[in-house]
Amino acid sequence: MKSPEAMASGRGVINLRFNQDQGCFTCCMESGLRIYNVDPLVEKAHFDIELMGSVAHCEMLHRTNLLAVVAGGSRPKFAENTVLVYDDISKKFVLEFTFTAPVKAVRLRRDKLVVALSQQIHVFTFPSPAQRLFTLETRENVLGLCEVSPLQTAERQLLMFPGHKLGSVQLVDLAYTEAGMSSAPVTINAHQGELACLAVNQQGTMVATASSKGTLIRVWDTSQRILLVELRRGSDPATLYCINFSVSSDFLCCSSDKGTIHIFALKDTRLNRRSTFSKMGGILGNYVESQWALANFTVPPECACICAFGSRNAVIAICLDGTFQKYVFSQDGNCNRESFDVYLDVCDDDEH
């Protein structure tokens, strides 16, 4: 999500994020924190402002009892430079990590905790013992762009974040790290402009990138560092909020401030649409070489939104205004609404 604090809506939602298998999501609010199951849509946990304060970021650890929380918003109970780990079984905070600057993002794996500041990435062993492994310097990273391959059994155990060079992505292999050391970072020169969005697939074999221009999404092979496919969201600049791979990596979806969710095929790219000007490639250049979405559907425009894949070719979209939408797409590009607008119960507790 892009600058969550700047996009908070009147319903009190500050930030939204899916867990590692995209089956749950966190809803960070001015009035605390909610955890929801996606299918069926059910509230699983509710932490009020007395316990959490207002919350800017929350990262689930799959579907376990551990949550990493960062305060923010208008009524924080904790400092914005601190990551707190909450145990929902013991009903208390069990770990605290404090930094010299505000925390921009936090990511969890079953064996690692990663914290992004505006110019640093900190990596810790997790959950026990919780020890700092290493710290990496980055270029200015106000969005806190940082992702890790979620599975310990993944083909590649990767950490990725903006490199020092404009538009580049740095990859660090977490399988070869020990205290005080990290593997030599590998760089992909992904875009000419600043990065705006990053995503990694479940196996760590592919990374998707988008720049602040927001017209193209590029998908890269993380082993060979080569471009696999270039996907065109549109021709007009846009702010991308979210990119996600399907669990199988057969498809990719993205959301932007244009109010459209785009769905692309990755395994069989012949399913993606091509420009009607493709025969004029010599004149129009790269514009016609990139692939356009297989399918798309609309959400409230200019309202920040996250998207992910559900079961049976379903795509879920959740927006900061509290709307929840589910569409099912077919390989011929049809997109059918399976659920009408559902509004999450996200009013501030004071309003009940």
TrEMBL record:
<keyword id="KW-0072">Autophagy</keyword>
<dbReference type="InterPro" id="IPR015943">
    <property type="entry name" value="WD40/YVTN_repeat-like_dom_sf"/>
</dbReference>
<dbReference type="InterPro" id="IPR036322">
    <property type="entry name" value="WD40_repeat_dom_sf"/>
</dbReference>
<keyword id="KW-0853">WD repeat</keyword>
<dbReference type="GO" id="GO:0006914">
    <property type="term" value="P:autophagy"/>
</dbReference>
<comment type="similarity">
    <text>Belongs to the WD repeat PROPPIN family.</text>
</comment>
<protein>
    <submittedName>
        <fullName>WD repeat domain phosphoinositide-interacting protein 4</fullName>
    </submittedName>
</protein>
<dbReference type="GO" id="GO:0005737">
    <property type="term" value="C:cytoplasm"/>
</dbReference>
<dbReference type="InterPro" id="IPR001680">
    <property type="entry name" value="WD40_rpt"/>
</dbReference>
<dbReference type="Pfam" id="PF21032">
    <property type="entry name" value="PROPPIN"/>
</dbReference>
<keyword id="KW-0677">Repeat</keyword>
<dbReference type="InterPro" id="IPR048720">
    <property type="entry name" value="PROPPIN"/>
</dbReference>
